[in-house]
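I hope you will forgive my troubling you with a question about protein structure. The record follows directly beneath this note:
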Amino acid sequence: MRVVAAALVLALAMASPLSAQPPQVKQGRHAVRGMVVSVDAARKTVVVSHDSIEGVMPAMTMPFDVRNAQELKDVVPGAIVAFTLVMSKDAGYAEGLRIVRYESVEKDPLTTRRLRLLQNLAGAGTTPLAVGQPVPDFTLTDQSRTSVSLSQLRGKVVALNFIYTSCVLPQFCYRLANHFSVVQKRFQRRMGAELVLLTVTFDPARDTPERLAEYAGQWKADPSAWHFLTGSVEEVRRVCRLFGVDAFVDEGLINHSTRTVVVDRRGVVAASIEGNQHTASQLGDLIERVLSR
């Protein structure tokens, strides 16, 4: 029995009430969407934290075989993917796997063109860090006016996101902060010792440490494990550029790109998630996999 079929039977057994009969795998073709947790190109498998598959199983994390190895090209942890789960009596595999690129439907064409132009100007000669690359050290100031350097967190898994506290759209900064709040609760016993969260503002002029402390209080953030960071304009801009985050002021608000990054214990990018398409649970599944290494 292939990886998918075996994992699916186990998943169904765990999700179903106890009975005398083993769970039956629903044969056919089923649409799947989720976040990649890990990839094994040599074995042609991908582990995905997926959404609920209607009529098949609830949302969970499981491995999928991919028969066409080319479909795994450019697939990395943190990517949002969609595919068809093909299930027969004793085998299952993912077919037509593709990366779902992030597109913000909220941006109007003019804003999109302006942001792209500014990205090109600001990022000239700068390529955002990719999965597998080490992250250069940086130092910013948190909500308690304490200096926090990435290098001092070596040996721990670090998750970063980027926000500004004046953001009025709930699907952007608020959503990302809420994801970290859920992660903080899920890994409560490991926070600080093994996992640290960094939320970087790209609005240092208004987001002072005092303002960030107020914002952190809304999320009941543990200041020893979840740092809300600011710094000089130059320092903040450098950190944003490292991860391909762009922002510009527009009539008092900030148009910006959206990204969440997970850095492993060695200081290497383990995942770089663009956009807001993922759930807090999927982010947690990804972090759990990085913690287990």
